[in-house]
Amino acid sequence: MDLLKSIPKVDKFIKNKTFENYSIKLITKIAKEQINQLREDILSNKTNNFNEEQLIENTINEYEKITKPSLQNLINATGIIVHTNLGRSLISQESFDKVKKVASSYNNLEYDLQAGKRGERYSHIVKALQNLTACEDAIVVNNNASAVFLILNTFSKNKETVVSRGELVEIGGSFRVPEVMTQSGAILKEIGTTNKTHKKDYENAINENTSILMKVHKSNYSIEGFTSEVELKDIIEVANKNNVIDYFDMGSGHMIDLPYNLDSKEPSILKIMENNPSLLSFSGDKLLGSVQAGVIIGKKELIEKIKKNQLLRMLRVDKITLCLLEEHLNSYLKDELNNIPTLKMLHTSIDELKKRATYVKNSLEDICKCEVINTQTLIGGGTTPNKKIPSIAITIEYKDYKPNKIEKLLRENGVISRIENEKVLFDFRSIQECELDEIIAIVRKVFK
C-alpha cells in the first residue's frame, strides 16, 4: 500500500519542469495511462518498486513515439522506378521549390484574374495539355481509377459499355473493371474471348442502349500465344460510324518514346492522340512522372459534360497537385526532361549506373563482401507489364548473415533492397545519385 501511495497524482506529475516544452494536453493523456498501468502492475505484483524518473522517461518516450511522423524518407534500392509501395514517381526538389510559394500563399486557384470573378481550377493545366497533345479540352481528378469511374458514370449510367473479355482487369487493391462499372451504374457488355477479340465483335455488340466502346490497358499482365486484340484506331472507327463514344483507359500514360523498345506495344499519349479519340485517361504519377492524378483529355463537348457531373466535386484535386502537374507538363513543353526524376532514372545509361555501383562497392568492401553485377528490373506501377530493362546492382554479403537478416537490418535503417538468387541486391536503377554517400553511411552503421 505504501508503494501505491507513492505514485504521484496526475495533476502534480504533469507540472514537472521536464514537460515544459511539450503539449500539456497530450502529456496529461499519456501520464494518466502510464500511472494507471503502474498502479495495475503494483496490484498484480508485476513490479515492486517505483521510480518517478523512469515514469517521466516512459511518458516522454511515448510522447515521441506518438508524435513521430509515420511517413519517412526511404532509399529505394529495389531497382523498381515507379514503386507503388514507395510512393511511385519522385518529385524533384527544383519542381517543389517552384510551386512552394504558390502553395503557401493565396492564389488564383478558382479566380479569373482577367474577368475579376470566379474561375475554374482545371483551366490551369488545360493550355499545357492542349499544346502537348492537341486535345480539345482536359480535366484532372485524384487518380486514374476516379477518371474511369467518372467517365462511366457520366456517359454510361444505365447504358451499355462494351469491353473485351481480355481487358476486364484487376489491378492493385482489388480494383476490378467489372465492379467499378457496376458501382458507376454502367452495364457491362463483354465481347470476344480471353485471348482473342476482333473488330466485328465491337460492331456486333452495338445496340440502341450502347454508350461507350471501351479499351482497357492491361497494366499488370500480358496475354501471349494465340492472341489478337483490336487496335484503338479501329475501335474509334467503329464508334464514329455508330455515333457512340470511344474511351481508352490508358492506365500509365507516357508522353514521350521510351527506351529499350518499351513502347513497341504501348504507344505514347501523343501517338494515340493522332487518332483523335473521344476520351483518353491516364495516371499522373506513373510514367508521366508527376503527382497522383487522373488526367482526362478529349473532345470538348464530352469534357464539358463530365464537369457537370456532381461527383466531380468529390474527386477534384487540390492546388498543390495542380501546381506540380502544371510544372511537370511545362517541363515536357520546354524539353526539360531532367526535371522529371522518373524519366531521368529510366534513361540513365548502364555505364553511369556501373560507375555509381563501383563507387559504393569500393567504399564498402572493407566491411562487407560486395560484387558489381548486371541485372534486370521492372519499371513497376502497372507500367509495361513483363517488360524488363537492364540495370546494374551490387550484391551485399556480411559474415554468415542470411539474406533475410541483412534485408531486415537495412530496411529498419531506411534502405529497401531486394533479394535475388539468395543474395541481397542494391539495384542502382532506382537509387538517386545524391543518395550514394547516404547509403554507404547506412551500411557502415548497420555492419559496424
UniProtKB/TrEMBL annotation:
The pathway to which it is assigned is:
Aminoacyl-tRNA biosynthesis; selenocysteinyl-tRNA(Sec) biosynthesis; selenocysteinyl-tRNA(Sec) from L-seryl-tRNA(Sec) (bacterial route): step 1/1
Q: Which GO terms describe its molecular function?
A: L-seryl-tRNA(Sec) selenium transferase activity
Q: Which UniProt keywords apply?
A: Cytoplasm, Protein biosynthesis, Pyridoxal phosphate, Selenium, Transferase
Tell me where on the tree of life, at the top rank, the source sits. Bacteria
Q: In which compartments does the protein localize?
A: Cytoplasm
- N6-(pyridoxal phosphate)lysine-modified residues are K286
Q: Name one GO biological process term.
A: conversion of seryl-tRNAsec to selenocys-tRNAsec
Q: Which reaction does it catalyse?
A: L-seryl-tRNA(Sec) + selenophosphate + H(+) = L-selenocysteinyl-tRNA(Sec) + phosphate
* Xref: InterPro entries: PyrdxlP-dep_Trfase, PyrdxlP-dep_Trfase_major, SelA-like, SelA_trans
**E.C. number, please?**
2.9.1.1
* Cofactor(s) required for function per UniProt: pyridoxal 5'-phosphate
Is the Transcription regulation keyword given for this protein?
Answer: no
Query: Which NCBIfam families does this UniProt record tie to the protein?
Result: selA
Q: What does the protein in this record do?
A: Converts seryl-tRNA(Sec) to selenocysteinyl-tRNA(Sec) required for selenoprotein biosynthesis.
Report the protein name in the record.
Answer: L-seryl-tRNA(Sec) selenium transferase
Question: Which species does the entry assign this protein to?
Answer: Malaciobacter marinus
The UniProt gene name for this protein comes to: selA
